[in-house]
Design a protein that fits this description.
Two copies of one chain form a homodimer.
Chain A (H helix, E strand, L loop, with lengths): L2 H11 L4 H11 L8 H13 L3 E6 L7 E6 L1 H11 L13 H4 L1 H6 L7 H32 L3 H35 L9
Antiparallel strand pairs in A: 1-2
Helix pairs in contact in A: 1-3, 1-4, 7-8
The structure holds a DNA duplex (28 and 28 nucleotides).
DNA sequence: CCAGGCATGTAAACTGTTACATGATTGT
DNA sequence: ACAATCATGTAACAGTTTACATGCCTGG
């Protein structure tokens, strides 16, 4: 559903086949952006059966034939509609950040943990977020050096901001825990009704 | 998988039944946090068959019997293990923000859109993000007034920071588009290889 | 000789959403 | 009369991940 339009956009820039699209995704951003086969090939099939792309089989010696797809006029129109964005209020709003972050779920019950242990858990999380942010900084640096389209660089910069935001939030959480440590002193609170 | 521990934590604070858990989730945070039945009841079943909670059926006049669950000693131990967080490097890192945000996907192809139209699309997105942030601010205000556990308030504050971050990112994107508008002038770029 | 790249896919498992099925009571 | 609240669930569908299946060629 989402993958489709990214594939369509890539094929519009240059016709290609499953494997080449997979590689391009992984190399343009980062290895972790790679799509898995179980999603990629069916998606290409759906795009074809919808008449948005068309296949041309290019045989090769010793290797499986390449199925090279290019975008049809219909496909191009669909892509352009999508690119302008959904009509306002179309996409249902979701506040699923809670379910997507183990740390937020733990945070809901953090008062049941002795402050010292809570602090340790949050500090570990902070380290991880810092590391993830660093990874992405390196990716963006590579992109800058490689002269990648600035709009695409901004996608990774979104990830960096996201990690930075997480770090700030975790630091605020730490401050709150240290406050609790001072107030509660040596008296740990156990889990109970 | 994720829902389980939240249910376990809630049942540890006070035994309850499916419907009461559902209500509590929706009211403590916001309506949108509600779990759907198709996830809730099977999750309770799994927790029971794993021996982490135990059922007591409480008949009622005129209404279906309540299935009141309480946490077993095993369940409490499992919850405490979870609460301390995963051993470092356990959770696989995911950089799936690209696939989770239509706007980021569009951003990858924004250069194919005339700057004026790109600006309009981004401005729409900015409005939505601002509105979502405002919604959450109101939720957190309600929580502050209701004297909810500060750790739980911080969960919603995460959401607010997330929306704020998105706004900042969208504004940077706007600045970049306006730059492109000045440079390109009246010459629109079409989609092509 | 084995790992990895090239190239296509399928299948099973898991997660999550929406809708359905039932039925009494209470409020508008 | 109609909708909402209370209360349990199931079933169908949609989306995603992981692993499997095949097979040749290249480099260490």
């Amino acid at each position: 559903v989402a993958l489709e339009y990214t594939l369509l956009g890539m094929l519009l820039e240059k016709p290609g086949y499953g494997y080449s699209l997979k590689k391009k995704l992984a190399e343009q951003f980062s290895r972790e952006f790679g799509v898995n086969d179980g999603l990629l090939y069916p998606a290409l099939g759906r795009l074809e059966s919808r008449g948005w792309i068309r296949k041309r089989v290019v045989p090769q010696a010793g290797k499986p034939a390449r199925h090279v797809y290019s975008v049809t006029a219909d496909g191009k129109r669909a892509f352009e509609r999508w690119l302008e964005g959904p009509p306002p209020g179309e996409e249902p709003v979701r506040y699923d950040f809670y379910w997507r972050h183990g740390m937020l779920q733990r945070c809901a019950f953090l008062r049941h943990l002795e402050p010292a242990r809570a602090r340790a858990a949050v500090e570990r999380e902070l380290e991880e977020a810092t590391r993830r942010g660093g990874d992405l900084e390196r990716v963006v640096e590579r992109m800058r050096a490689g002269g990648v389209d600035p709009y695409r660089r901004m996608i990774v910069e979104y990830g960096i901001r996201d990690q930075r935001m997480q770090c700030e939030w975790l630091e605020e959480l730490l401050a709150r825990i240290e406050e609790a440590e001072r107030v509660v002193g040596a008296r740990p609170r156990a889990v109970s009704g």
